[in-house]
Amino acid sequence: MTANILVVEDEPAIQELIAVNLEHAGHHVIRTRDAEGALQIVNHALPDLLLIDWMLPGTSGVALAKQLRHEERTRQIPIILLTARSSEQDKIQGLEAGADDYVTKPFSPRELLARIKAVLRRRAPEMTDEPVDVGGLRLEPATRRVFGAGKPLQLGPTEFRLLHFLMTHIERVHSRSQLLDQVWGDHVFVEERTVDVHIRRLRKSLEPSGHDRLIETVRGAGYRFARV
Ligand code: CA
């Protein structure tokens, strides 16, 4: 499991400690020291998860979490709050702000990694290595293989990520810009019709087992992965 994780922490030593540990675990780390920096990065490309320190210069970590939860585009991003506070009241306030979890300093890197994994599994199942089965279609993230009715199918890397996202978010309609954010991680520099090109390729790859029929075009809205 590899995720793009945005670390918002103003203390250089702690920022470094977190980054080194996350990178060692295979994650890609983007760093910033305050809420303003975090918003700039998020506007450019959505990370898979945010690790936000509660006490930041300027806008607090809790206020940043609230703001992200308030906006349509960033509502779904997994957030873990990091803090020296440990009282029950603070924890409640953090979770009410929209954080998925809460890690109290000092923390062990191992605990932090375990919590990141748990939050990603819950919020973004396409980020984990667990195989997904839908209607006779099987996707195995660990081996990057896809099987239709038991037979291997050939998919390009982008089609694989697209299919993984769709299979872990079935029955929902995804607009092209949502898919760009979720699969490409960028809604700014990639054109929406790029999504159509990759959907077409994905359908072609799924044709041998007839699973291309599971990808539905929803007129004027986007695409949906149907259960059957
Ligand atoms: Ca701090």
Describe, in plain words, how this protein is organized in 3D.
This protein has eight helices and twelve strands. The strands form three sheets. The chain has a five-stranded parallel β-sheet, sandwiched between helices. The model has no long low-confidence stretch (mean pLDDT 91). The longest helix has 15 residues, at 109-123. The protein has helices at 12-24, 35-44, 61-70, 88-96, 109-123, 157-167, 176-184, 193-206, and strands at residues 4-8, 28-32, 49-53, 79-83, 101-104, 132-134, 137-140, 145-148, 151-153, 173-174, 215-218, 222-225. It folds into two domains: 4-127, Rossmann fold (3-Layer(aba) Sandwich); 132-225, Winged helix-like DNA-binding domain superfamily/Winged helix DNA-binding domain (Arc Repressor Mutant, subunit A). By secondary structure, the protein is α/β, with parallel strands linked by helices. It binds calcium ion (CA). Calcium ion binds next to loops. The site of calcium ion has 5 residues, from loops.
